[in-house]
């Protein structure tokens, strides 16, 4: 902001200057803070942005259930990524699955379906995470974005729950400051 009058505000950005008129004009400069706050709210709404910004990543190990889900999904994605992981000669087959041949046979049949269902479901959840992060000011140019998206691809819904908890916490903090 370079100047403010009762009629307008001048803002300089990227070497350009723009004049934004106040409609209706202010009666006194005491109204400036209220008007600028409202302009910020209007701009965020028009951009589809929230006034809550996500600035950090919360890893799955902060909640035992989320850590269990993360590890189980990672194991499933790894094991079911190739049928050779559940056939004779593979560590998993030779140490565990060879003891229960009917179960091993069932896994071999289900392998491509389980893998692709997981990949598709977690890709969909990454799309939800992408929208949520965008709404809360996180872009793909930030390390935080990559942590949330990567975690979401592996574990799915529990990462969405953690980001929702973070947003709720920041909302509570913001509300507490108002009072």
* Percent of residues in beta strands: 5-15%
Assign a percent range to the helix content. 55-70%
The main pleated sheet reads as:
3 strands, antiparallel
By DSSP (H or I, 4+ residues per run), the number of helices equals 6
Tally of strands: 3
The dominant shape is: elongated
Q: What's the number of domains?
A: 2
The class by helix and strand makeup works out as mainly alpha
Please state the average pLDDT score: 93
**SSE sequence, one letter per element:** EEEHHHHHH
Uncertain stretches: none
The order of strands across the largest sheet is: 1-2-3
Radius of gyration: 25 Å
Query: Termini separation (Å)?
Result: 28 Å
Task: Characterise this structure.
There is one protein chain. The longest helix has 35 residues. The chain folds into 2 domains: 45 residues, no CATH class; 119 residues, no CATH class. Helix 4 runs antiparallel to helix 5 and helix 5 packs across helix 6. The two termini are 28 Å apart. The protein has 179 residues and is mostly helical. The protein has a 3-stranded antiparallel sheet, with no helix packed on it. The model has no long low-confidence stretch (mean pLDDT 93).
Keywords summarizing the entry:
single chain; 179 residues; mainly alpha; three-stranded antiparallel sheet; 6 helices; elongated
Summary of the model, kept short:
The chain is mainly α and 179 residues long. Helices cover 60% and strands 8% of the residues.
């Amino acid at each position: 902001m370079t100047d403010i009058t009762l009629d307008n505000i001048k803002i300089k950005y990227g070497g350009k200057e723009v004049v934004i008129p106040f409609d209706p004009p202010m009666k006194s400069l005491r109204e400036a803070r209220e008007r600028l706050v409202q302009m910020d709210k209007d701009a965020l709404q028009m951009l589809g942005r929230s006034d809550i910004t996500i600035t950090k990543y919360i890893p799955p190990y902060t909640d035992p259930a989320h850590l269990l889900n993360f590890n189980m999904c990672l194991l499933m994605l790894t094991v079911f990524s190739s049928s050779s992981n559940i056939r004779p000669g593979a560590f998993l087959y030779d140490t565990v699955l060879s003891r229960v041949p009917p179960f091993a046979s069932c896994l071999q049949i289900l392998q491509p379906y389980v893998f692709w269902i997981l990949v598709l479901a977690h890709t969909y959840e990454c799309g939800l995470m992408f929208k949520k992060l965008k709404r809360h000011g996180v872009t793909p140019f930030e390390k935080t974005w990559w942590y949330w998206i990567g975690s979401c691809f592996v574990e799915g819904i529990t990462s969405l729950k953690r980001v929702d908890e973070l947003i709720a916490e920041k909302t509570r903090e913001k509300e507490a400051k108002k009072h």
